[in-house]
């Protein structure tokens, strides 16, 4: 072992120790490695910084943007709804459906892309189920890695070993040659994670210091809104049919606010309409109403005469419609135009297209008819309406200071009307990736441009969506690949394999090939690992006088079995932050499963691809 190789291995070991202790942060460790390696003369500065120009790194950044486009248009919500509805109340069914969906899609497109797209979906599903994201993020990563074992085009290492076979004069693999192995490993992965998920129920890695964000239900409690909400359906023979909201004067006569209107659409869905003064009411419209005081017998009789049918509530104070309508707390500064005026005098709903449903002075909620209260400096108003109008309040810095936005705003889709465009952009990207007409990175960048052109997301939202710590971690560890190859570390490991196992039983050699491929894959990309190991495996098969196909298949499966560390694959790195994992979580869960995959490979490959 030469001194430079010893230095590289020492630096690599030091990085692993810092990863395990999580001190400093993993992306900081990667930056340190990127600085130390060229200073030590092991790699050049261009080699140390080459990751910033690597197509896969740009691809990952672009896929974060694509995922944000799906979130902002509500497509991620719809996928999450599908998973939740199909899984019922079972976390087990949810995990199985998630892994099958991600693996199925990843078998025909970039597994990194699939995981990047599914991350916001998983975060939404976990929030709704009140699950730790860590219970679903690692299953998502495993499904993404296993998806590469399902088809020939599932991942680049499959194409590498196929090309090596053809160049050596042998018959290559077919499109579905990998499928029998991948299906068995996927089934094993699902079963394994159903057992191992108990170790994924992580507490907050910050030591539980993160404060819970306020939700709309907290506003309902703080502003004493209980029992003030009603859902009233307009009967076909109601005298309100055809009249506008302004003409019926419900706000003036009954001290009530129409928060929103549910209008039946084709099918079983309802369209949620904004309560505008000139909106004409129709039969079967459902009024979502806030009343300042509970209705007495006289008013209940009036409801019956107006043919307004009370309907059951679906959530406390309309929180079931939190994707469409939201709440926010706003503070009135001393120079606000609203100070000294009532809500009605300020024409609040007309100007800001929001309803004021609560008022607090200090810590106390003001009861009764708040619409008649003269507003004071320092008053806190609770407003309700469409999320886009709530976001607009943040621009009215003269009139308001937005104090609190509830957690539900993260699930709101500010560009919901653009969902068909987002799906079209995604379809274009998938088709381009599957057909190979353009490189994957170009397909993803084109999808980003299309999402921007169709206004599915803004430029600011696109930049904010990129998980920079994950990208820095990937880029910072890339120079180790060049360092190990330049200092002879990879060659040393490969020649040692042939010396020790070159003349042993073929199955034992297959296991050794799998183990070495997996170990090299800890520090070198899976594609580079396949490039290095494929000719060695074929040479070993030739030396033993057996078929090369089992050895080529073993290399391909082992190259995708990057389960053991968060830096083994970009897929693992992507889920590290949202899953709140530590380095040791991957080691603890990944090492046993890698052994399981190795056993399956050694048993199954010689059976389906005879030696």
Quickly list its features.
Alpha-Beta Plaits, alpha+beta, 55% helix, SLC13 family permease, 26 helices, five-stranded antiparallel β-sheet, transmembrane helix, transmembrane, 611 residues
What do these coordinates show?
With 611 residues, this protein is an alpha+beta fold. It folds into three domains: 6-205 and 468-608, no CATH class; 216-321, Regulator of K+ conductance, C-terminal domain (Alpha-Beta Plaits); 325-408, Regulator of K+ conductance, C-terminal domain (Alpha-Beta Plaits). 55% of the residues lie in helices and 9% in strands. The protein has 26 helices and ten strands. The protein has helices spanning 3-21, 26-39, 45-49, 55-72, 75-87, 91-106, 111-129, 134-147, 156-167, 179-196, 216-222, 245-248, 250-254, 297-305, 348-352, 387-393, 419-435, 440-453, 459-465, 468-486, 489-501, 506-520, 526-544, 549-560, 570-579, 583-608, and strands at residues 229-234, 256-264, 270-273, 286-291, 308-311, 325-331, 355-361, 364-365, 380-386, 401-404. A five-stranded antiparallel beta sheet has the order 3-2-4-1-5. A five-stranded antiparallel beta sheet has the order 8-7-9-6-10. A hairpin with a 2-residue loop joins strand 7 (355-361) and strand 8. Helix 1 packs antiparallel against helix 2 (26-39), helix 4 (55-72) runs parallel beside helix 18 (440-453) and helix 20 runs antiparallel to helix 25 (570-579). It is elongated and about 95 Å long. The two termini are 35 Å apart. Residues 203-210 have low confidence and may be disordered.
